[in-house]
Amino acid sequence: MTKMPVTPAPTNDPLWSQGWYHFAARHASPNFGSRPPQAHIDLIVLHSISLPPGQYGGPEVPQFFNNQLDWQAHPYFRQIKDLQVSAHFFIRRHGELWQLVSCNDRAWHAGCSSYRGRSNCNDDSIGIELEGMEGAQFEDAQYESLHALCAALMQHYPIHHLAGHEHIAPVRKADPGAGFDWVRLQKNLGLEARYLPLGLGAKHHAKER
């Protein structure tokens, strides 16, 4: 499938500066690269993460995204030793929003993946990590931050698809899982069901974006 060139974003948008969102705390990760020249940034991918699994609020996730995690601090960390990953955004349980990679750049969050007829989803997606467990529920504050962020992304980039890691890499991944409320996200953004993975959206007649 031929990729379309990125639609230029408004240069005078007060919410953005070179792919950095002004309402996110900036914690730059070294784990990123350039997007392919013809990348069409039209996909948001949602993930969930907690380190150690099921523990929230500590420094481990940011340390992991910055290659600073103490691999000896917990037995689980040996499974992810030497991985270099990142996402564009990280949303804490209480709703605090961090940005780790400029949205104009390619974060390393999707891995081997395929969606809407394209492979290598890192090339043309924006990755958002929610602090939480795969399959578990998320906090109201996280949804509020996520809704505001997605609305800002959709105003600035030609987003037409939202999916979970489980939908772009179903053999390998299962996050964010059954605990994530896709209908809540859809309704708060005023989206038609076609923006979401098949079967996850509520049918209603939102105005076309």
Task: Write a short abstract of this structure.
By secondary structure, this protein is α/β, with parallel strands linked by helices. The chain contains four helices and twelve strands; from the N terminus they run E-E-E-E-E-H-E-E-E-E-E-E-H-E-H-H.
Major β-sheet, in short?
6 strands, mixed
- Per CATH, the superfamily is Peptidoglycan recognition protein-like
Widest sheet: strand order?
3-7-6-11-5-12
- Spatial shape: globular
Overall number of structural domains: 1
Hey, roughly how much beta strand do the residues contain? 15-25%
Low-confidence stretches: 1-10, 205-209
Quickly list its features.
209 residues, alpha/beta, Lysozyme-like, 6-stranded mixed beta sheet, disordered N terminus
What's the helix and strand layout?
Blueprint: E1 16-17, E2 20-21, E3 25-26, E4 32-33, E5 43-49, H1 60-65, E6 89-91, E7 97-99, E8 106-107, E9 114-115, E10 118-119, E11 125-131, H2 140-156, E12 161-164, H3 165-168, H4 182-189
Helix pairs in contact: 2-4
Textual characterization of the structure:
- The structure is a single chain.
- Helix content is 17%, strand content 18%.
- By secondary structure, the protein is of the alpha/beta class.
- It has a single domain (38-175, 182-190), classed as Peptidoglycan recognition protein-like (Lysozyme-like, 3-Layer(aba) Sandwich).
- The strands form 4 sheets. A 6-stranded mixed sheet has the order 3-7-6-11-5-12.
- A hairpin with a 2-residue loop joins strand 9 and strand 10.
- The two termini are 23 Å apart.
